[in-house]
Amino acid sequence: MPIIIPNDLPAAVQLASENIFTMTEFRAIHQDIRPLRIGILNLMPTKEVTETQLLRVLGNSPLQTEIVLIQLDGHVSQNTTKEYLERFYVPFSKVKHLNFDGLVITGAPVENLAFEEVSYWSELEEILDWSRHHGFATFHICWGAQAALYKHYGIPKYPLNAKCFGVFEHKCVQKHVKLLRGFDDTFNIPQSRHTEVKLTDIESVSNLEVIAYSEESGVGLIVSKDGREVYATGHSEYDAETLGLEYFRDLDKGLPITAPKYYFVDNQPAKGVSVSWRSHAHLLFSNWLNYYVYQETPFEQLE
What we know:
This protein is α/β, with parallel strands linked by helices. It contains ten helices and twelve strands. It has helices spanning 11-17, 25-28, 47-58, 82-88, 92-95, 121-134, 143-153, 199-203, 242-252, 278-294; strands at residues 3-5, 22-24, 36-41, 65-71, 89-91, 100-105, 135-141, 158-172, 186-196, 208-214, 218-224, 229-232.
């Protein structure tokens, strides 16, 4: 089944070239099916890139999903045109009365700031509170996960001595969790962050369970006991080129950066990228949609 997106969303062209089945809003309204309504709060500056990455993994599922792209009311994007946002995004204030089967909250490049120093922190706090009542299941990514853990449980983030940057092996530390159904015992997750949450802080919260952990990069995946909250510290949705583009961008700027670990073939940029996370990324998001959203959310039409 397809993923439903706005009629002329640019990501549709890229997804079609990858044989990922998408359906326009016009075609979808002529089918007598209630799709899952998934809201994406996209806090990343490169919105089109992030949209495509998330739609790729959300669209690789037999479930029909309707995507609603959400933007903050009180923050003006510096990297995306006003016209693009007005065409494809809906301000939070326009959807806050709605219920969603699932929500995705992305990361943001603000992790070196204290949460309270982020210009839109008060609105994000409101959204995180709202998500617990208007989203049946929420998938938090990277800084979005750190922000939600801090808001909901008071779990702090800690600065790292060096950036966690690369593709790291993680172990399934809970073997019978539905989110990891079909996973190998070990799997890889791309990471790109300057801060971390600590295992001991998470283990002190009875409602949270760490289900994937890396000896090198730390906590990978966290799930609440009722399954309605998923926290991913990394970026399983990343394209093959994402970490490389970030690396070469910082090199060009003269910033202190080392090559992402376990990413380039033989750790040599000239040899290209060794993609080792894609299959588990698709499985991660399809498991979330199936076991945590579709099989749990009420069938009745959402208001």
